[in-house]
Design brief:
With 227 residues, this protein is α/β, with parallel strands linked by helices. The chain has two domains: 121 residues, Response regulator (Rossmann fold, 3-Layer(aba) Sandwich); 94 residues, Winged helix-like DNA-binding domain superfamily/Winged helix DNA-binding domain (Arc Repressor Mutant, subunit A). 41% of the residues lie in helices and 21% in strands. A five-stranded parallel beta sheet has the order 2-1-3-4-5, sandwiched between helices. A four-stranded antiparallel beta sheet has the order 6-7-8-9, with helices on one face. It has a three-stranded antiparallel beta sheet with strand order 10-12-11. It is elongated, with a radius of gyration of 19 Å. The model has no long low-confidence stretch (mean pLDDT 90).
């Protein structure tokens, strides 16, 4: 699942954006000032940053510049009420990838973010690895030592989510929210069933144990250490 950071001091707007992104399958984190946002970018990897310009302390332009100075190429889209050509040029020249003027339609913001993510994927193929297992989210292929493992859609999505955040425990409800989203039919054990199918397909390669059950909570992936 893609992970977005929202840096915006308007908490009501943050809540609206977060709900919209989560409904579209994104994991969302937020920061309410430039310093907090910059610290999160330094210590975490995000697929995209949505950034306001008029922030307390460090403004959005400076955040962009500092992010680029530390070598992070995370796509950044600026949201601001400042709509002059000079403002747009400054944001883009500082290192932003796109610029959207408030007020805006969420559908346009989402479309712009998806376009940024597609362009990035074309240049950077993000492979997820766990021992001999390699998951290609772009091609939607799973291989072990080069041999293809045919996974169904939900099996692939569960494995991608858990691999992307290795050792992080996901509750069943959280997995449903990110994998099934609005298509969930209310079946209580749907996650357990698909995890069983996934383990069955990994078992011939002795990799079924990478998907760990955390009793009373949910699931996580723990990769083998061959060192």
């Amino acid at each position: 699942m893609m992970k977005i950071l929202i840096i915006e001091d308007n908490k009501d707007l943050v809540q609206v954006l977060a709900e919209g992104f989560e409904e579209n399958g994104f994991l969302v984190e937020s920061a309410y000032d430039g310093a907090e946002g910059l610290d999160k970018i330094r210590t975490n990897d995000y697929d995209c940053v949505v950034l306001d310009v008029m922030l307390p302390g460090i403004d959005g332009y400076e955040v962009v510049e500092r992010v680029r100075e530390i070598g992070k190429d995370t796509p950044i889209i600026i949201l601001t009420a400042k709509d002059t050509i000079e403002d747009r040029v400054e944001g883009l020249n500082r290192g932003a990838d796109d610029y959207l003027v408030k007020p805006f339609d969420f559908r346009e913001l989402l479309a712009r973010i998806n376009a940024l993510l597609r362009r990035r994927a074309e240049h950077k193929r993000p492979l997820l690895k766990c021992g001999p297992l390699v998951l290609d989210p772009v091609a939607r292929e799973c291989t072990v030592d080069g041999e293809n493992i045919p996974l169904r859609r939900r099996e692939f999505d569960i494995l991608e989510l858990l691999l992307r955040y290795e050792n992080q425990v996901f509750t069943r409800d959280r997995i449903i929210a990110h994998v099934w989203q609005k298509e969930y039919d209310g079946t209580s054990n749907v996650v357990d069933v698909h995890v069983k199918y996934l383990r069955d397909k990994l078992r011939p390669y002795n990799l079924d144990t990478i998907v760990v059950t955390v009793r009373g909570v949910g699931y996580k992936v723990t990769c083998p250490n061959y060192e």
